[in-house]
Amino acid sequence: MKYYFLFLLLLFYINPLYAVDSDIALDKAPINIYDIQSIKRGAKIFATTCMACHTMIYLRYNKIAQASGVRYDKMPLHITQWPNGIKPPDLSLEADIHGPDWIYTYLHSFYLDPARPTGFNNLLVPNTAMMNMLVPFQGQQIIASDLNIMQKYSDAPLQWYDVLELQRKGSLTPKQFDDMVTDIVNFLTYAANPYQAFQWKLGYYVLGFLVILFILMYLLKRNYWQDIKKE
């Protein structure tokens, strides 16, 4: 059993889709787990764009996912032939594996690279096997012409927007694309833990109950000790 888990761990790290991360800094994902409308928009984008390759089997019974089109019967479960022989992973727990900031930065960091089979590469995951499905919306990015100068005089790791520049516009403005990616990341964060917002809300009630209980126990203790001292 121990060697089986070691094998799975090794397999995960040598998967080209999860190549060794670069030194690019992670951008902060402006997600809000309480924004249900954003989660629904992200689910619809996932259903129409991402689900062409990726599955989300752990969310198959979720009402928000089903209403948005993320349904088990529509997932690419029976496809056996994938480009370059690499099967795209299930994204149910992607936000738990890498975190929202990593996903947000990754989806922004594709750039033109004719040397790659897909025609694109990624700053955060060099030589990624994933196709750039968002290029019609974001547009085509290239490595900035003054990158070497920025690297020379920069002490901190560069952000993706320091390294890349937009060569050809997509159907969305940069602000609209940022909002689109935020919705996708918000949905993936929700998918990893659909009850997170409820758990946070319940946690406040539990803490409030414990505070009230502590006060009552303290007052009860004082009352007991008053009777003991009288005796």
Structure description:
- The protein has helices at about 1-15, 35-50, 65-70, 95-100, 100-110, 135-140, 145-155, 160-165, 175-190, 195-230; strands spanning about 110, 120, 140-145, 165-170.
- The protein is mainly α and about 230 residues long.
- It has one domain (about 20-195): Cytochrome Bc1 Complex, Chain D, domain 2, CATH 1.10.760.10.
- A two-stranded antiparallel ribbon has the order 1-2. Strands 3-4 form a two-stranded antiparallel ribbon.
- The termini are far apart.
The tally of helices reads: 10
Q: What is the strand content?
A: 5-15%
Classify the secondary structure makeup into a structural class. mainly alpha
Q: Estimate the mean pLDDT confidence.
A: 85
CATH superfamily: Cytochrome c-like domain
Helicity level: 40-55%
What tags apply to this protein structure?
single chain, 231 residues, mainly alpha, Cytochrome Bc1 Complex, Chain D, domain 2, two-stranded antiparallel sheet, two-stranded antiparallel ribbon, 10 helices, 50% helix, disordered N terminus
Q: Layout of SSEs?
A:
Layout: H1 2-14, H2 36-48, H3 63-68, H4 94-98, H5 100-108, E1 110-112, E2 120-122, H6 135-138, E3 139-143, H7 147-153, H8 160-163, E4 164-169, H9 174-192, H10 196-230
Antiparallel strand pairs: 1-2, 3-4
Helix pairs in contact: 2-9, 5-9
